[in-house]
# Entry
Amino acid sequence: MNPPKRIYRQFSGAKLKVARQELGISREKLGPFVGCTPMPIYNWESNKRTPGGRYLNALAVQLRKKVEDFYDVSEGVGAAAT
# Structure
């Protein structure tokens, strides 16, 4: 029997940055609409930190994306459930 495949999701700061740049919005302009200063946005885009749910939802709304659009998705083999 083959082990089950798992879906792995990892936040991608690069995808956030591309979405922001596609709309021509600076970090300084985006911050107030998301509820933060430009520094957290920089940290998210640099993959130094991951935004929490509240910020993810606000980013998705402001950048006209789905939250899932900010994630890299991959499949891998995981351990079988016991």
Notes: The mean pLDDT is 91.
